[in-house]
Amino acid sequence: MLVNLKEIIGMAEKGNFAIPAFNVYNIETVMGVIDAAEELRAPVILQVYPRLVNEEVGFYIAPAVVAAANRATVPVCFHLDHGPSEMEAIRLLRWGATGIMYDGSVHPFEENVSNTKHIVDICDAINVGVEGELGHIGSVNDDEMEEFTDPQEAAEFVKRTGVCCLAVLIGNAHGHYKKTPKLDIDRVKAIREATGGTPLVLHGGSGIPDDQVKAAIKAGIRKMNIGTDVCCAFAEGTQKTLADPNRSLAVDVFMKVAIESVKTLAMEKIKLVEADGKA
Ligand code: 13P
């Protein structure tokens, strides 16, 4: 069933686990994640990067995500990841999204607050939850990380914007880490406390050691994003098929191993964040 961000995050809050949020890129990645969620009875978020919305790949993927979510027997939220402006948010809402992230972390604090509040006002009108970002979460290729999220600023940000969950910078980055990351778990606790228990979001979930993921969830992470690992699983599946001399070139058959590979990865992550059996 298709559910909204507030509802699915509420499930994680109640059960002290995190919702795995998988970035999806095509119908095969959608199929792999949904199969995993069904098999493990897990609530999941399927999210798309704004470039998919901009390039209108979303025009094809969005109906597939919505159809998959409507048919699923587990809760599924369709979410915009790192929306940079109102345009992407409105377009994806029109295509059926039930969660929106507005990422104003590259802007100064006041601008981030007012832009995020504007998106929250739009989404409130149709009861869609908004994820904000404070403390810019960069790429593993950046020379250095920005300043980690400040708990007091986070408290003010949440109060003034009304976001239903907040992405924080605590030593995480997007992509496969070049060296083992070290998450600032005490900061997660401090942000949780300062914000009165706001559900927090961990971006850059590909490659964070399991023990750190578990500690972060214990401290208040309620959504974990996984993007790069989905791409790798899909690519590995495809390579396996290419190496098989008996492979079928019929595209639907050709894709079967890649779908299975995404499913296996999604099952691992669902178990890691303890979302299995929660639907
Ligand atoms: P990874 O690609 O590092 O898993 O990060 C995904 C993410 O945080 C998407 O917003």
Bound molecules: 1,3-dihydroxyacetonephosphate
Can you list the strand order of the major beta sheet? 1-2-3-4-5-6-7-8
Estimate the global geometry from the Cα principal axes: globular
Structural class estimated from helices and strands: alpha/beta
Specify the oligomeric state: single chain
CATH topology: TIM Barrel
State the end-to-end CA separation: 11 Å
Q: Compute the number of helices.
A: 12
Cα radius of gyration in angstroms: 18 Å
CATH architecture: Alpha-Beta Barrel
The level-1 CATH class? Alpha Beta
Give the H and E element order: HEHEHHEHEHEHEHEHEHHH
Low-confidence parts lasting 5 or more residues at pLDDT below 50?
none
Mean pLDDT: 97
- Tell me the β content: 5-15%
Question: Helicity level, as a percent range?
Answer: 40-55%
Short description:
With 279 residues, the chain is of the alpha/beta class. It has helices at residues 5-15, 27-40, 50-54, 58-71, 86-94, 109-124, 151-161, 185-194, 210-219, 228-243, 251-254, 256-272, and strands at 19-23, 44-48, 76-83, 99-102, 129-134, 165-168, 200-202, 221-226. The structure holds 1,3-dihydroxyacetonephosphate.
Task: Give an overview in words.
- The protein has helices at residues 5-15, 27-40, 50-54, 58-71, 86-94, 109-124, 151-161, 185-194, 210-219, 228-243, 251-254, 256-272, and strands at 19-23, 44-48, 76-83, 99-102, 129-134, 165-168, 200-202, 221-226.
- An eight-stranded parallel β-barrel has the order 1-2-3-4-5-6-7-8, surrounded by ten helices.
- The chain has a single domain (5-272), classed as Aldolase class I (TIM Barrel, Alpha-Beta Barrel).
- It is built from twelve helices and eight strands.
- α8 (185-194) runs parallel beside α9 and α10 runs antiparallel to α12 (256-272).
- β6 (165-168), α8 (185-194) and β7 (200-202) form a beta-alpha-beta unit.
- With 279 residues, it is α/β, with parallel strands linked by helices.
- The site of 1,3-dihydroxyacetonephosphate (13P) has 14 residues, from β3, β8 and α10.
